[in-house]
Specification:
Strand order of the largest sheet: 3-2-1-4-5-6-9
Bound molecules: NADP nicotinamide-adenine-dinucleotide phosphate
Helix content: 40-55%
Radius of gyration: 18 Å
CATH superfamily: NAD(P)-binding Rossmann-like Domain
CATH architecture: 3-Layer(aba) Sandwich
Distance between the termini: 47 Å
Length: 266
């Protein structure tokens, strides 16, 4: 298994200004990578740029791109800038939260969650793949979730997007085996960012979910990227739970009654 040398890497990071994206950007910068930071809000990206430690290197290695990756124009903008920067690492990190009983989720929200979490990473990967294949070593790292292997009440749509992203990653990894492009799936557990609404935080507290600070998650993402491994899930109980769930999901159904009862009413 060939790992990635970050000091020689040219990276596209989507969702860069978010809770996990920002410490990931700072860690990649400190590791010497060239960065293209993607998000929808220019102001948030500019603030992230200013937060990069000047002691850690030259900020001219970094560029920002404010686009919506849920649109064809956004995908095309990332593709053309990435090509000019000889990008060899794509980190699909942008994501949209979705929580609640299925009947309480409106149609526009469901479509946006599927577009942001699943369709956009697929289209971005497809758009960047020819450029990635021209590089001596390349990686596509998809930020999924523990909920991409273990689906919980209240996360039907979110889990579907993250299960889908895992299926996409697994198939593409096998499709590209023997090429220079690694495909990796990263599954954090609950991370302390603004991603989780007060309702989700109340549910997590009620169900005793383990959490990680975003800096720890960012460091784990870099470890996965450097290792070249196929997948990494965070949290020791979660690592076992996802394995058991993979073998006998129905056997675990009764274990999630507490989660069902912790859901807000529809
Ligand atoms: N936090 C958790 O508990 C947790 C756990 C497991 C996995 N994850 C996954 O980790 C990833 C990052 O989560 P986070 O906690 O950092 O969330 P976050 O703080 O809400 O950040 C998400 C980022 O995605 C960007 N984004 C959303 N839609 C976009 C679009 N259409 N085009 C471009 N950018 C878009 C947002 O950028 P702007 O709003 O600035 O445009 C934002 O910076 C997500 O994929 C999430 O599913 C999170």
């Amino acid at each position: 298994m060939m790992g990635m040398k970050l000091e020689h890497a040219s990276v596209v990071l989507t969702g860069a200004a978010g809770g996990i994206g920002a410490p990931t950007a700072r860690a990649l910068f400190a590791a010497g990578a060239r960065l293209l930071l993607v998000g929808r809000h220019a102001g948030r990206l500019a603030a992230l740029m200013r937060s990069l430690d000047p002691q850690a290197g030259d900020r001219s290695r970094v560029d920002v791109l404010a686009v919506d990756i849920g649109t064809p124009a956004g995908i095309e903008a990332v593709r053309s800038v990435a090509l000019a920067r000889h990008v060899n690492v794509l980190i699909n990190n942008a994501g949209l939260a979705s929580f609640g009983r299925l009947g309480a989720l409106d149609e526009a929200h469901i479509l946006q969650a599927v577009t942001t979490n699943l369709v956009a990473p697929m289209l971005l990967t497809r758009a960047l793949l020819p450029g990635l294949q021209d590089q001596p070593a390349a990686a596509v790292l998809n930020v999924g979730s523990v909920l991409g292997r273990l689906a919980l009440p209240g996360f039907s749509v979110y889990s579907a997007t993250k299960f889908g992203l895992r299926g996409f990653s697994e198939a593409l990894r096998r499709e590209l085996a023997g090429t220079k492009v690694r495909v990796q799936y990263f599954g954090p557990r609950v991370t302390q960012t603004g991603f989780n609404s007060p309702e989700v935080e109340a549910y997590n507290q009620e169900t005793g979910a383990g959490t990680d600070p975003p800096e720890v998650v960012a460091a784990a993402l870099l470890t996965l990227l450097r290792s070249g491994a196929a997948e990494r899930f965070l949290g020791v109980p979660e690592k076992y739970a996802v394995r058991v769930n993979g073998l006998a999901p129905a056997a675990l159904d009764a274990a999630f009654k507490r989660h069902r009862l912790a859901l807000p009413d529809a």
